[in-house]
Specification:
Elements: E1 10-15, H1 23-35, E2 41-46, H2 48-51, H3 58-74, E3 83-86, H4 92-101, H5 106-110, H6 113-121, H7 128-142, E4 148-150, H8 156-172, E5 181-183, H9 218-226, H10 244-257, H11 261-267, H12 273-299, H13 302-331
Parallel strand pairs: 1-2, 2-3, 4-5
Helix pairs in contact: 3-12, 4-7, 4-13, 7-8, 9-12, 10-12
Bound molecules: tryptophanyl-5'AMP (TYM).
Length: 336
């Protein structure tokens, strides 16, 4: 990034390569990433180090990392505009992670709901990385002085911790880090499970009908929406507290068609859930079709994907390496 373009506000976000992205990942995060590219200096990252907090099969992790990058390109991340890279390719993130670990408190890390959830889910592997996960995430963000971080609702607590750690560091040393803000859209920040709409849609769900993968074909998408859990009153009305299943489907349909919530309610007024669910499935399948086409094309060209990631790592490192030197100096590490 040139001196001049550096004055544009900076965006950073990341996604873990723990399997194919879900519709939740797409709506809550990735869809917005592409839209923000014109307006901001964007850095987007495949968070492979974060994935290691849960036991990974090495070959699968390598494959998933490249596939994640290909999917981000297919979803509209333009390497001519944005920096796309893999977290572990920029070592300054882990260097800053240590400094931030020494500035993050045990108490605040203990309060993270994701830590509590994941510890409960993997009681045999409550490792140190899982605990300090938010400090690495803070490093990802703060090393680029990101102003905005487009994420789904489940990451906002981590973002708050990043702000607190940044503030604490700035107070202890001198102003160093920009305090990042979340970019969380109103509808779609929390897409719910199709099988249990009181829980968020997650690719680690053991019930495959709970989520839509971005690679699901039209028949699978149609079938999963047909089975989506709703309620028994048969009215298509947006009311997340009392009608979480139907409201989730309305939000998805609204996002894929661009129709307002009221328009959606009117469109299906007096019609049963069957017709509505069919329409939601069709809208999602239509919306994902071009991304799936691009994904297949891009993934077939491994050299292209790897080339983008190499250039991305070099560009990100140029910024991150400067920052880590500055931080090392401020905290008093001897530099020769
Ligand atoms: P991850 O990989 O779990 O999810 C990637 C993005 O998808 C969003 N998301 C959702 N949004 C709406 N509804 C859902 N059901 C849903 N499920 C997931 C997440 O909020 C996220 O924005 N720690 C991060 C990755 C990360 C990161 C970062 C993000 C690492 N470093 C720095 C931002 C900045 C994570 O595990 O996301």
């Amino acid at each position: 990034m040139s001196e001049q373009s550096e004055r544009k506000r900076v965006i950073l976000s990341g996604i873990q390569p723990t399997g194919t992205f879900t519709l939740g990942n797409y709506i809550g995060a990735v869809r917005n990433w592409a839209k923000l590219q014109d307006q901001f200096n964007c850095l987007y990252m495949v968070a492979d180090l974060h994935a290691l907090t849960v036991r990974q099969d090495p070959a699968a992790l390598r494959r998933n990392t490249r596939e994640a990058a290909a999917m981000l390109l297919a979803a509209g991340i333009d390497p001519a505009q944005s920096i796309l890279f893999v977290q572990s390719h920029v070592p300054a993130h882990t260097q800053l992670n240590w400094i931030l670990c020494c500035n993050a408190q045990f108490g605040e890390l203990s309060r993270m709901t994701q830590f509590k959830d994941k510890s409960a889910k993997h009681p045999d592997n409550v490792n140190g990385g899982l605990f300090t996960y938010p400090a690495l995430m803070a490093a990802d963000i703060l090393i680029y002085n990101a102003d905005l971080v487009p994420v789904g609702q489940d990451q906002t607590q981590h973002l708050e911790l990043a702000r607190n750690v940044a503030q604490r560091f700035n107070n202890a040393y001198s102003p160093t880090f920009t305090l990042p803000e979340g970019y969380v859209t109103k509808e779609g920040a929390k897409i719910m499970s199709l099988a249990d709409p009181t829980h968020k849609m997650s690719k680690s769900d053991t019930n495959v009908n709970a989520f839509i993968l971005l690679t699901d074909d039209r028949d699978t998408i149609t079938r999963k929406f047909k089975r989506a859990v709703t309620d028994s009153d048969g009215v298509v009305r947006y009311d997340p507290a009392n009608k979480p299943g139907v409201s989730n489907l309305i939000a998805i349909y609204h996002i894929f068609t661009g129709k307002s919530i009221e328009e959606v309610e009117r469109e299906f007024d007096g019609q049963g859930y069957g017709v509505f669910k069919e329409a939601v499935g069709a809208a999602v399948a239509d919306g994902l079709a071009p991304i799936q086409g691009e994904y297949a094309r891009i993934l077939a060209d491994k050299a292209y994907v790897d080339g983008v990631l190499k250039e991305g790592a070099a560009a990100a490192s140029r910024i991150a390496d400067r920052m880590i030197q500055k931080v090392y100096r401020k905290v008093g590490l001897l530099q020769l």
